[in-house]
Amino acid sequence: MSVGRRESEDRGMGGVWPEAMGLSVCIRDGIWAFYPFMTAPQSGYPGKLIAVEGLDGSGKSTQIYLVKRWLENQNCRVYFTEWNSSVLVKKATSKGKKRHLLTPTTFSLIHATDFADRYDRQILPLLRAGFIVLADRYIYTALARDAVRGVDREWVKELYSFAVKPDILFYFRVPLEVSLNRILDGRPELKYHEAGLDMGWSADPYESFRIFQGKVFEEYQRLSEPGGFVQVDATREIHTQQEEVRRLISDRIDLAAFRTAGRGWS
Questions:
Q1: Of 8, 57, 196, 218, which one has the fewest beta carbons inside 10 Å?
Q2: What's the pTM?
Q3: d(Cα 17, Cα 46) in Å, to the nearest integer?
């Protein structure tokens, strides 16, 4: 994906239209995002994709890590990836956050670039190679957070339309106050964007964080309504949740087909 700012109303690129080059176009606030035309296949790869979503403090990262260790102990071909971890855009993201240069749209695009890089280099090749890919957050994090920051929902949905849907999508459901208490207890300081201070809801980081997480919670509820989310009660003991998660994975995926003499990658 490449990103640029529109110089005029003419969509031509040196006389060549983006569509003629096999590029799709997303436009937001005068910013053009070009990326290859891709479809979102529902299945067909020999690998399987398992993703987890949920509020900060829901315990999803702990659960997906335990799944990773469980699959590794069975000598399954497994790969782990997490949100906002692309080396390609790490420096740019860090600089933009530190200098408070990111608008909601550029914030959205920079995370989309991060995801597209990991998708192209890691997720898709390993699904094709027959791995179980574990994703700590997937495109639904962007759909929720970007909408909260005021970015058009349909625009964001189109931006990530190339991504394959997970074979299993766990949503770790937890009451807002429980997740807030887990994060805020013992946390000395909240980061600027983490707290949603860029939105101007409150000058107090903790109050801003509460507002931000409350809005994200509402977006997750909206996203989960059509179905497709496997909801897990994240207020229960860690081992109880993990047992349920493992049971569901075992029911839906033939793990024997992914076993090898080697170990997983991460």
A1: 8
A2: 0.82
A3: 36
